[in-house]
Queue: 4 jobs
Job 1
Amino acid sequence: MILFAHQERFRRIAKERSRFAWYAEPGCGKTIGMLAAIADHPIRTLVLAPKSILESAWGGDAKHFPALRVAVVRSGGRGLPDADVYVANYDAFKRRLKEFQAAGIKRLVVDESSKIRNPSAQITKAVLAFARSCESVYLLSGTPAPNEYPEYWAQLAAIGATNLPYFSFAHRFGYPIKRQAKGRTFVERWCQTEPQAKALQDLLASCSWPLRKAECLDLPPQLDRIIEVPLSAPEAAAYESVRDQLRIALESGESVQVAGGAALMKLRQITGGSVRVEGEATGLGSSKLDALSEYLDELGREPCVVWFQFRDERRRLAALMDERGDECRWIDGETSFMAGKIADDFQAGKFTRLLCHPQAAGHGITLHRASHAVYYSLDFSFENYVQSRDRIHRAGMSDVPATYTHLLATVGGEKSVDHSALKTCRAKQKASDAILDAVREVCRAEPIEQGAQQ
């Protein structure tokens, strides 16, 4: 297997460090680099990864290392096959934990390690306990802490970089902003002083390697385009009604967490043209569908990936493609087990429109046959946004810039929740990048020739 220079460098790091985090942006080829390190020292290994990339990323890339016996382990079934490397999703890990504990696992690899960012989650506790029994632990992620710095705690604990309890870690490297609501106090967000931020950066620099694609791959630029979509009268009326209800709830003292979550979801649904009432989908209009259809007319037969958030949106989008005569497939919760095959068919040119939900298709798969991606709708997750963008911006893509078109609804000429979601994602990205960029400076990593291969 011919490795890029940055993959070869991680391979060398893995020989020297038994516990380490490789925080490389999506598209840098972390899977290949990790498999190369495993092949150098083939002890029994467990890889934890999102369900959607078990076959497409780990199973596919493992074919480049025929000496390694790699087995994908599902949630069902009993008895583990004889293998060097077991690849499992997090649900299979929880369900078959006793089997993995008895299998003599010596090395743990946690892919998309932001999965263990919640300190109170059962999966986080299980992974940390398992990591303590392993000789070596490696973390892979392009978005390790997509929201706030305390999300690094479990990851650093897994590789032995901190032995502090969660709240001690959070208070050492920052301080909470608290809020009262309905007679209780909770942490609204975490902040850092400059010395605290520097201390965390130094800690991360001692045990991780942040890497940007621009440092190691020669890829075309990424271009962003915004199409503002005025909502029709029925859509706007429904939107304004829910927005007014949210304002009343907040003014009455209800917390954003209580009143905001459901209302924001409804507002996001409405901008897509439908809303669920008592479990039933109700169509309100087709403003965004019409705007998307016009955009697809501009593209002609060029391949395009369309990102959506809700099941009802997928149905309406699929109906639109059928009406247009555009053959399409989709990757969502119902088809995630086929994500790799669907992505391969798209890459092979068997159809030109691919509808994707970011939680099902946002990790590991390659869709760079398309130079165009459309965000029909957005959530507030920076991780989902960044990961989904990188599906078309990867090594092997054409020289055409990757273009991301955002359909953002307007209501009576004013910005909508769509604008807020995009603004939030970009703000979180800026904060996350600031930490990792500072770590890069602290690391003073040796320069890597752009695009070079060993």
Note: The CA atoms of residues 75 and 91 lie 7 Å apart.
Job 2
Amino acid sequence: MKSFNRTSALGTAVLGLAFAGMAGAGTVSYNSTIQVPTGGTTSVYFGTGNTDGAWTVDNETDGIEIALRGAIRTSGPVTPTGTPQDTYIVPVGASGINLAFWDVEYSIDLDPTGSGSTLDFTKVTQSITVTDLTDPTRSVLVFNPVGNGVNGPADDAKVGNIAAQNSENPAFANPYLANPFNLNAQDTYQVTLAVFDLSAHQLASDTIDVEAVAPEPSTWLLLLAGSSLILVPRFRKTCA
């Protein structure tokens, strides 16, 4: 993830909190794939080695498609579980560069192929909200994921000005939270991606749960064996 509060986007935070309960008239699909943006060549484009699938996807009647999924940094997307399939079980602990072993990957497509939408990023705002459901005393984190990364606007992969994707790691939030993210906490996190028009009306909303658990010893060995690969993350457009 490119920074769980990039430059303190207070306006986006207010919008995200105020309108988090408003839902669009969309259809949610689980453990699913996403569409190719208009002008794009592939559905997943935010880095090499990334595959499609395992997304929780919200498709709106106005043509917007947004999606979230949980992923393990060295292995890729996690297959969601539950009823519906919107819970991603990930390991606790830190990678070799003191980041969480897991990421949340997002996709925003304002004009999927054939939708006919006229929206672009000059006509909308967007936010990701992260809440620790296990420990409600922790800060609620809200940030704008698009074009606001720690490495500047190029931090997020884009198709024209109508689609964006990236991978976000919760450990990036540590300098900004009153109660910093705990790499070893066995907590459940609710993550919501939302898009609003410039009048603050919610156009689309997508929510997943990420459940961080202590993995079995055999799983730890596999994760630690791949920790050297984390120094050049596979699942990001650019390194943090």
Note: The two ends are 9 Å apart (CA to CA).
Job 3
Amino acid sequence: MNAHLPHPVDHASGFRAIRFNADWITRPLFGIALAIAVVASIFGGTGYIAAFAALLGVGAAREWHRMVGERVFGPTFLLSALVIVSALAAEATWPRGAVGWEILAGGAVIVAAYAAFAKLLPAWHGAGPLCIAPALLAIVMLRDAPHGAVIIVGMFLAIWATDTAALIVGNLVGGPRLWPALSPNKTWSGTLGAVAAAALIEAGYVAFIGGNAIEGALYGAGIAVLAHAGDLAESWVKRVFRRKDSGGMIPGHGGVLDRIDSTLIAAPVIAGLVLFAGFNPLFGVHS
């Protein structure tokens, strides 16, 4: 049964409304475990990161198709999972080629066609692999770029800083909500704190590897904006289908889709800038 969402109010209560719960323990523990797994796969090489991305993609696809109206492990999920895994395998086998993207595009059409045949929601089901896989493919593509592992780690540091600061600052400060009708838990204070935290973390990271810290700070702030955009896009889908979380697979974090939503826009944009526009997100560190 779908979780009914509370009616949003214009302001969050802030520090006075904070109450201890199990998420205080499970969220950081599982967050650290996920971060270690991500970093290990990044430095393990293209095959490892593609395999880890495929695992996340399958989990996210399961949640997507259940959220938009199919039973758990139904045919549209199985088709989407096959499409996502095949696209990532193609990208790992033929790096930075078109095969993976062709598999993704053709596979999405097949998923939508089956959904129409099954009298489901073809547009929503077909959108599943198209919403999930581009970020995963983008990360695998970035891994093969010069300094790819270092670039991806920098991106994730800014995204993790964004997510963490938005939660902490939003809960401590409260205040006006960012977009109550779309995402009742997000506040302007959390959003601004997230941008500041991402800028600070990215500046420190870029300086540490020998780049320009000021440019790194601007880059980090930009990643935070893109991360929020992905988060809000997923929140919109959940509001359409009256879901509070996409799932509960990751204790303290909700579903896999909830965990990767910040990369859905950020990763493709960064990969496009690096691979096709010659952008150097290390700001002074050259190939």
Note: Confidence is low (pLDDT under 50) at residues 1-8.
Job 4
Amino acid sequence: MQIKNFLNKLNFSLGNKPRVLPHSKNVRDRFIPHPYRTVLIISCDFELIWAWKFAKEINCDLAKARMRAAEERENFSLVLELSKEFNIPITWATVGHLFLESCTNEGGLPHKDMPRLSYFKNKYWKFVKGDWFDGDPCCNWQNALEWYAPDLIKKIIDSGIKHEIACHTFSHIDCRNKICPEEVFRKELQKYKEVASKYGIPLKSFVFPGNLIGNVKVLKEEGFASYRVDKDILGFPQRDKYGLWEIPTTAEIGPYPYNWGLDYYIKRYKTILENASEYGRLCHFWFHVSTDREFLKKSLFDLFNFIDKKREHIYITTIKDYVQFLENGNFLKNRTQL
């Protein structure tokens, strides 16, 4: 671990992590709107208990999962307030069940209409017994704040900031083809669209839970335009074989996998953004709302303050709005004057 730690820091110091992908000026000019030097996207995974109930990190302990969800609720207000203070839009990758004000148990089975995954393990989760929806209290949201969040979703909508809510599946499943049958994935998307439609939310962006990618063809068929790809690069989006935009990440905001100290991480994020401006690349930070509160409080404040002071050079946007910019051809029109 110490060797990896050293090599990671060394690669960052040498400018190799995140890697700056080579592109010609003509390619760069297609993706960075005039007169900006870089595009900045910030996305966060908003999940509450759904990310934790089968998590290996807590040994699938439901009591610990509830505790993590309660902490995430507290962090949510912090993130939303900081985004408003500095006028920073965020793409909120949100689990669909959080939209519900209540749900019911039919014949001893929560969400009877939803097809289930078979048992599986991956590097994050261990689902080896029971039912995928075990623990769902099937009650009013006010009596189970870890499982539902219509109040928080309304706060995002009413915040006055042009945030985006992106689909993160209805119940936080592993979407890979070898784990998730097509019919399960399709139903997760359709259920999500059903619950989100009551809030008037247009869904165009998708974020795979655990960044575990699969069933992409179904995304296209269900009307999505893009999905996040965990690449840790300074580069540009690209279209996949289905015509969907792959939106690469640049760096995760959080104290892992190495305990380098908060000040070092903050310096790292600022340097990454400066490199994005220097080379004219997309910078995409992402994080979990469940990340340690003190880390989020200090790192987001310092980073957002840094962004705010340089915003004349930074095109700050959401995934949906950036994809719309790419698809409407404005970048071509804007560049005729250069």
Note: The domain at 23-337 is CATH 3.20.20.370 (TIM Barrel).
